[in-house]
Write a structure and sequence with these properties.
This protein is mostly helical and 87 residues long. Helix content is 57%, strand content 0%. The longest helix is centred in the middle third of the chain and has 26 residues. It is flat and about 65 Å long.
């Protein structure tokens, strides 16, 4: 009888070299406001999928979209001397 086995490590098995580096964690922390703004936008859009959007729903989506754009702009402007400035 031949056994079928996986060739890769299990998905849930974490080796020390698979952990995020300090630089990667810092980058995630820096981008967290943009990530949260994206989540809010997706939540607002999901809320309007199964019904006709009311004026309140439309405002919520517009507000979330503006927040996404503002946080991305702020993140781009924080970059540094060599990063392009977004107005």
């Amino acid at each position: 009888m031949t056994h079928i086995v996986t060739v890769q490590d299990a998905v849930t098995a974490f080796a020390p070299w698979m952990e995020p580096t300090a630089a990667e964690l810092d980058a995630i922390e820096l981008e967290m406001p943009a990530i949260l703004a994206d989540v809010d936008l997706i939540d607002a859009q999901i809320a309007t999928l199964d019904r006709t959007p009311s004026e309140l729903d439309a405002r919520r989506v517009r507000r979330a979209r503006r927040r996404v754009l503002a946080t991305r702009r702020d993140l781009a402007n924080q970059g540094g001397a060599d990063a392009p400035v977004v107005a």
